[in-house]
Amino acid sequence: MLVMVILKGPVAISFNGNKEPAAYAEMVSMGGITKQVKRDLIATLGKILEAKLSIPRARFFLKVYDTTAAGNSSKL
C-alpha cells in the first residue's frame, strides 16, 4: 500500500458560514475502499484531527474516490 499525505495550513475554510476550525481531505484509491473501510478511515482521521489539531469531528469532511469503481481501464 502506498500513502501520500499533503498537509496545507492555515487555509480558510467555511462550513455553512461558520469559520471555526475545520478540515477537508481527499483520498484516491485504486481499489480496496469498501463502505467499512471508509467508515474506519473517517473515524480514525476524525479522532486524530480532534486530538492533535482541536478540530471537532463534525467539522471534518473526507472525500473518497476509488479509481477502479469509475471503470477506468487505463493500463499504465
Automatic annotation (TrEMBL):
<dbReference type="GO" id="GO:0050178">
    <property type="term" value="F:phenylpyruvate tautomerase activity"/>
</dbReference>
<comment type="similarity">
    <text>Belongs to the MIF family.</text>
</comment>
<dbReference type="InterPro" id="IPR014347">
    <property type="entry name" value="Tautomerase/MIF_sf"/>
</dbReference>
<protein>
    <submittedName>
        <fullName>D-DOPACHROME DECARBOXYLASE</fullName>
    </submittedName>
</protein>
<dbReference type="InterPro" id="IPR001398">
    <property type="entry name" value="Macrophage_inhib_fac"/>
</dbReference>
<dbReference type="Pfam" id="PF01187">
    <property type="entry name" value="MIF"/>
</dbReference>
<dbReference type="GO" id="GO:0005615">
    <property type="term" value="C:extracellular space"/>
</dbReference>
